[in-house]
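INFO  loader      accepted 1 record
INFO  loader      residues=341
INFO  predictor   begin
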Amino acid sequence: MNDTTEKKPRAIALLSGGLDSTLAISIMLDLGVEVEALHFMTIFCNCTSARRQEGCGSEARRVSELLGVKLTQFNVTPEYLSIIKNPKHGRGSSMNPCIDCRIFMFRKAKEYMLKTAADFIVTGEVLGQRPMSQHMRAIRLIERESELEGLVVRPLCAKLLPPSIPEKEGRIDREKMLDIKGRSRKPQIRLAAEKGITDYACPAGGCMLTDKSFGRRLKDLLEHNPDAGMPEMRLLKYGRHFRLADGTKIIVGRDESENNKLEMLGKGYLKFQVADRLGPVTLAPTDAREEAIKFIAAITARYSQGREKSLLLIRSWDNGNEKFLEVPPAHDEEFARWRIE
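INFO  predictor   done
INFO  writer      dumping tokens
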């Protein structure tokens, strides 16, 4: 006897760990679609919930467990750096290459869709929500360049878009999807409440590349070091950043947590810290000139306890080599103009 039961449609859902992608998967599950979540990790995510600080990867894992779907994660930062440096379709208001980013992620998702014999891609995109990548022309461009035309389902705004192939074929019910548009998150927050989803991260997105302060740091880095890689990019997330008059780049920690991060990530850098009291860890290049080293020590003293004193003892070290400098704390007007942010 032949089995005439229709096979459930299978979808690969792009899951950031944020509210929109969570809701998109939930809607697909309600429509009887078999969903596998796909999460692309980069060092530029700053998305966390109000109560946790683990970041996007852990949020994606938590959401997949909540919804009962399989999750596959890939760290794509090394490949993604080339897009950040040379985006074909330009950048947004900061250093965010949103259109190129979506094309990159969609191409990756298509590879995985074909590999796993899934039928289509699902995203949490909302028409008009992102000024650069979620208007109609950009949506069509991204689908075309990723060779996914008609194979991307956007449950939150599907009724405002041309029907996708799965909708045309009747594999998913278009009428049970939504028509959310614009930048307000109130409809999504209401829907989350209706579905009993109360703990979610980044209802408004979590990409550091859209942040103006981070963007200035990244722009400065690429102007001075076009070949910068992951180690340099990671350091952009921590501390106060300065580019001194001679081109020397320094990073000054703002609290104990950042000091620990700078010590951990600062291999190959010259480090400074006040010797006998609390103060920041400062990173500088090991080839910094002697005059710059004295100034860096003075800036370190400025952000340390005891900055009201005439002199502070600053320890500098690199690869086991240790030196001590006694310097007067710098005054803000001496170096404020060199701050990147």
